[in-house]
Amino acid sequence: MNPSSLRELGLDLLEEGQHERALSVLSEAVRRQPADHRSRMLAARCFERLGEKERAVTVLHACAEGLLKRDYLLSAIAACKLALNQSPAERRLRDTLGRIHARAVRAAPGRARVPPPLPPESLYEGKVEQDLMTLQGSELSGKALEVLAAPDPGGAADPNARPPLPLFADLERDAFIDLVGLMGYRQLKADQVVSEEKQGGESIFVVVAGKAEVTRFGEGGQRKTLGFLGGGSIFGELSLLTGAPPTATVTTSVETELFEVRREHLNQLAKQHASVMPTLAEFAQQRMAKNLMTTSPLFQQIPERDRAELLRRFAFRALQPNEKALIEGEHSPGLFLVLAGELVVQKEDPAGGFVSLGILHEGDIAGEISLLTGLRATATVVATRKTATAFLERGAFADLVKTFPNTKAYLEGLSERRLKQIGEALRPAEIIDADELVVEAS
After folding, report:
1. Do 323 and 343 meet the contact criterion of CB atoms below 8 Å apart?
2. 285: phi then psi, degrees, rounded to nearest 5
3. Separation between Cα atoms, residue 402 and residue 411, nearest integer Å
4. Mind listing the pLDDT tens digit for each residue in 402-430?
5. What are phi and psi of 399, to 5 degrees?
6. How would you classify residue 353: left for phi > 0, otherwise alpha for psi between -120 and 50, otherwise beta?
């Protein structure tokens, strides 16, 4: 039986509560294939269920070191997290997390490249010749530990083969280590909802392994697939940091492992590390800026090499619920681009009240009609909830359309369509001739 089949058998035994048999099978899988760190993590769970928590921690530590060696940084963090749940003050785990952080920082663009600390020496060699599935009791426990806690003999991974850690590499070392101790670690089955559109928004999620689908309600109430998230993906940070509810639903497609960083975790962390909240705010703004440059039709009119320079002309501006970005009859203060949240466009109805002209989401623009024509705003634009925007004041807007003529052409076309929409929205309904309502009886 190959190691993969052994792992599946061991998992089945573990789920059936046959912890000792599962330990023997999973340990044998690692004896045959030392790089099988998934089996190591499952075997550590067997030790935990058997009441041998110290051995479980030792195995998880070896697992983290092996994953770090192969540059599976998120999975290495997961192994440390599981061990910290059982032994929060374990020094060797904090040392390994420090080495994971050093590796992530070396890979992060623009960060100093410093050599990581030397890895710890292992107490176990894993040189066990006999089939572990024939053992039981204390003999099994001892031999299994020799195999499971032995170092992964495989070669080091290519340092450029994997992307740097999202968010974690931006934090200071001690803040990162403390965050790992605070945050949650979730293992979900397929078809479980992680985050729901327009609800919650109190957590940042990082996909450790697995796959999740991102959907949003479209016209007619039908869900539309926006994309899929794999290992290393991060979501929820814009909602948590701006206060705007999630704009999409995320559902697992397969068995998926996630880190969950809740608002209370960040608040607690910020009390000990003053740099945390500014770091998170900068991270969120960079993420919003990146999304804007790739999704906004305005930025599509500009050569990719010039987009970052243009974005620096914008200022970050948060709108509170019911705050008005534009007021009908007044000059627009500038151009608004929605980063996260929602703006509703309203027009005064001559018959009284307001007519809703539409809703603006991420990447949409407001204020261009007044800026282009020099006239007062033709509609009121108000935030329905807390909304993050990129704002370009009037003077900078004039420089924008002068420097990038394509943007002016795009905005003029958008303005023309919107003015036509306003006219149609306010046009009185046609009156049907009364004669047309008379149906001649047969």
Report:
1. no
2. -65, -40
3. 13
4. 888 888 888 888 888 888 877 776 665 44
5. -65, -35
6. left
pTM, whole model, 2 decimals? 0.80
As a whole number of angstroms, the distance between CA 307 and CA 314 comes to 11
CATH topology of domain 304-426: Jelly Rolls (2.60.120)
Report the share of the chain in percent with pLDDT over 90: 48
Alpha-carbon gap, residue 218 to 174, rounded angstroms:
43
Place of tokens 């705003």: 377
| Selection from 316, 334, 318 nearest residue 392 by Cα | 334
pLDDT of the residue at 441: 42
Residue 283: C-alpha distances to residues 166, 231, 385 (Å): 9, 19, 22
Helix (H) or strand (E) holding 282: helix 276-295
Please give the CATH topology (third level) of the domain spanning 184-290: Jelly Rolls (2.60.120)
User: β-pairing, 203-209 with 234-235?
Assistant: antiparallel
CA distances from 40 to 36, 47, 343 (A): 7, 11, 50
All structural domains of the chain with their residue ranges: 3-165, 184-290, 304-426
Strand 315-319 relative to strand 324-326, pairing:
unpaired
Q: How many residues does the chain have?
A: 442
DSSP 345-361: EEEE-TTSSEEEEEEE-
Q: What is the pLDDT of residues 375-410, one digit of tens each?
A: 899 889 999 888 888 899 988 888 888 888 888 888
Rounded CA-CA distance 148/31 in Å is 8
